[in-house]
Design a protein that fits this description.
With 253 residues, the chain is α/β, with parallel strands linked by helices. The chain contains six helices and 15 strands. Helices cover 23% and strands 28% of the residues. It binds S-adenosylmethionine. S-adenosylmethionine binds next to helix 3.
Length: 253
């Protein structure tokens, strides 16, 4: 049921989307004015009309809607990469994840969604401005209960005594290896997302010293090819989000 203060995703006949907070107020669109208060007490999926008779559907927003509309600081981890991180590391409800850097909080939100209400995500972010952005975005996604953000550098150490997995999106993941070997549970994953090949190379050089702690590493990059589906023509889209990053998976022995 939609309550006063809930967020809804309003979708118009063209598929245009608005993420709004439901209150007794007007919301202006190019298709006319909506009275958002009319949604209070109605189920998600309800229709609402503008003063011009145009219909909008009010959906319950999912994490992708929140991430698409939230404020951004640094570049986010895209769903294609977040999905493979969660799947390959076997991230499950109830897990405790150490993450860094939180950045805009997108990957934090994917991880918090995967670990569920019984799980925990502890995310380190060295920059105060990004820490603030991530904190607000996590609140917007409704995950403040299961996420702790720390405004500090993970290179200086990990405060927590143990973690099921460590997930990193920062320039020098090799600086976290000495802390990870103490904190990561056997069977857990150390995941490093890095945009550049030379970062992967540097990481593997540093890894030589820690090879006995981990199973054979795996490095992947993820390409998703979307298709255009039209009545007269179905084919791959002519543009795609190609390279984003390399993802390195190390499993602790
Ligand atoms: N994964 C994030 C997301 O999906 O929104 C984006 C992360 S952004 C590309 C990298 C972040 O790492 C930056 O916000 C940066 O300030 C942070 N960072 C860099 N070094 C760090 C460190 N030593 N400890 C914690 N955070 C760090």
């Amino acid at each position: 049921m939609i309550e006063k203060g809930s967020r809804v995703l309003l979708v118009d006949k063209r598929g245009k989307r608005y993420l709004v907070k439901v209150e007794d107020r007007e919301f202006h669109t190019d298709l006319g004015i909506l009275k958002l208060g009319e949604l209070i007490g109605k189920p998600y999926g309800s229709r609402i009309e503008t003063h011009k008779g145009e219909t909008f559907v009010a959906l319950k927003p999912d994490i992708n809607d929140i991430i698409a509309k939230m404020k951004r600081g640094p570049q986010i981890v895209h769903p294609k990469d977040a999905g493979i991180i969660i799947a390959y590391a076997g991230i499950s409800p109830g897990d405790t994840i150490i993450e860094a850097g939180a950045g805009s909080g997108a990957l934090t939100i994917f991880l918090a969604n995967a670990v569920g209400p019984q799980g925990r995500v502890i995310s380190y972010e060295v920059r105060k401005d990004f820490y603030e952005i991530a904190r607000k975005n996590i609140e917007l996604a409704g995950f403040s209960d299961r996420v702790t953000i720390k405004n500090k550098s993970i290179y200086d150490g990990i405060d927590e005594e143990s973690a099921d997995h460590i997930v990193l999106d920062l320039p020098q993941p090799e600086n976290v290896l000495p802390h990870a070997v103490d904190v990561l549970k056997p069977g857990g994953y150390f995941v490093a997302y890095t945009p550049c090949m030379n970062q992967v190379h540097r990481f593997f050089q540093a890894l030589q010293e820690y090879r006995d702690y981990f199973m054979r590493p795996r490095v992947v990059e993820v390409l998703v090819r979307e298709h255009e589906v039209k009545k007269e023509c179905m084919r791959p889209k002519t543009t795609m989000l190609a390279h984003t990053g390399y993802i390195t998976f190390l499993r602790k022995l």
